[in-house]
Amino acid sequence: MSGPQKRKRPGGGPGASQHSASGTASQSTAWPAATLLPRLERVRELGPGRWIARCPAHDDRSPSLSVRETDDATILVHCWAGCPSADVVAALGLELSDLFPPRRDDRAPLRPRERWVPRDVLAAVAGEALVVAIAADDLAAGRRLADADRERLRTASLRLRAAAREVGVDG
Ligand SMILES: [Zn+2]
């Protein structure tokens, strides 16, 4: 187990103040997490270099954006509801290049099961299981599912399967 030296708790949470009002942060790439985290809402640290936050690219009621800092200080972001990472950083006024430290060595890219901690993925997608449970209760009570509810169930299933694939589960 190893990790970068620099560790700082993000000053996250509702109403967390922005670092800069200028909107451009391309210069402050010394530590990408310091650029990204203050811009996110409802940031919660799950462990060293691992956070969960509200996704800025969609109407995210339960935080479903995973953020991870790799050993070379690159930041990985993933919206478990399916927003492309480029959209996520664009919604924050950043670019994908802001997620990389100024100098990158030639490490091999992380394989899927190395990118995310399954426990963190579950924290992000737990709300989808709740959707399924509520629908099951409705059915058990003899209620009929509306088309919109059935569509939402389908979305929950897709998100859960996408999350499984992201951590290296095949099929
Ligand atoms: Zn999203």
Automatic annotation (TrEMBL):
Residues 17-30 have a biased composition (Polar residues). Residues 1-31 are annotated as: Disordered. Residues 1-10 have a biased composition (Basic residues). This is Zinc finger CHC2-type domain-containing protein.
